[in-house]
Amino acid sequence: MKTLRHGLLSIAMLAMTCAVQAQIVIYSFGTSGSPTTNASSTASDVSASVFSGLNGTPATGSGSPVYSAGSGGSYFTATAWTGAAPGSNYFQFTITPDSGYSISTTTLTFGYRATPTGPTAYSIRSSADSYTANLASGSFTNDGNWSSVGSISITLSGLVSATTLRLYGSGASTAGGTLRVDDVGLSGTVTAIPESSTYAAILGTVTLLGVVIWRRRLQRAV
Fold first, then answer.
1. Cβ(208)–Cβ(4) under 8 Å?
2. Please, are residues 188 and 107 in contact by the beta-carbon 8 Å criterion?
């Protein structure tokens, strides 16, 4: 009986994965001498696209962020943030789990610098619902200084294919108003998806254990 229970536990543990909070991807945009839009790091079993933007000549730039979490070096920047929320301009990146894995997101962090004529608000949306609803939204302090948005709650669960996250900006007073971002990080969990054969093994073991328990109870009742 004890051996059977241990077998059930072992199979069940194989079906489960360690859903430990971890950083899925981060973009720090490289050093001043070697800027890059490639991801600085990604979690195991995940790939990430380059970081990009839509309008306002999106590109890397160099300088030293002075907000507390800043890595310094390079950043990503663009103009063209006028209009009402959520805005028509955005920065974006795409994450893709390897086959047999799923991604669930929890938080997004980044540093930013909005010029006095730059955007005053942001919205986070994703391709999971064709960018229809906000996953999060908030305000920018457009004083020309580097700041951190802190930890923004971003809840997306069970992503098994390529998913794009967009950071929309709005409320700039002129088309030339600038937004810079740095140290863009997305956290969450990457989980292995058990194969159907594993579920079948668990079901079979549970059924067998149930039969054994029933027979033993029946014997005791006789």
1. yes
2. yes
pTM for the model stands at 0.81
Q: Both tokens of residue 3?
A: 């051996």
Task: Please identify which residue in the block is written with the tokens 């956290």.
Answer: 187
In the predicted model, is pLDDT for residue 97 greater than 60?
Answer: yes
Domain count, the chain: 1
Closest CA to 71 of 45, 20, 96, 36: 36
Is the pLDDT at 189 greater than 50, yes or no? yes
Torsion of CA 155, 156, 157, 162, to 10 degrees: -160
Numbers of helices and strands, H then E, in the chain: 2, 16
Query: Contact at 8 Å (CB) between 92 and 166?
Result: yes
164 with 127: CB under 8 angstroms?
yes
Q: Establish if 169 belongs to a structural domain.
A: yes
CB-CB contact of 143 with 116 (8 Å): yes
pLDDT category, 11, cuts 50, 70, 90? very low
Q: Which of 5, 42, 52 is nearest to 188 (CA)?
A: 42
The stretches of the chain forming alpha helices (DSSP H) are: 2-15, 196-221
Is 136 part of a structural domain of the chain?
yes
How far is the C-alpha of 171 from the C-alpha of 30, rounded, in Å? 29
Is 56 part of a structural domain of the chain? Answer: yes
Q: What pLDDT, on a 0 to 100 scale, did the predictor assign at position 155?
A: 97
